[in-house]
Amino acid sequence: MKKPYPQVLLTIIFIFTLSLFTHAQHSDIYSDGPGYGENCTTIMVGRRASKRCSVMTSHSCDGNYRTWLEIYPHQKFDQGALHQVYSGMLHTEEAWDMTKVVLKGEIPEASETFAF
Description:
Elements: H1 6-20, E1 40-45, E2 56-61, E3 75-76, E4 82-87, E5 102-108, E6 112-113
């Protein structure tokens, strides 16, 4: 595997470092006090800035948003099964956190789902 050009690495490091000192967005809705911001960091590399002409992008959600990945297995459901629909899941602290989450209703469940 070939090593990337030093200037590409320096550019990526510079952009990342710069992003630490800038705020992409700010909201007081979920603020925990002065100096707390809900920030995201986006790093993009165009095809002319990468050695193999690849376009790369990365995004981090550094604020109080869902930052985890959930994997659901393939499932089959009985006819008439209902799926619960919630509001407020975007700003939970953990996957199992139900603080300020409100059940909005239920909808018919699909008879079978793929893993996702």
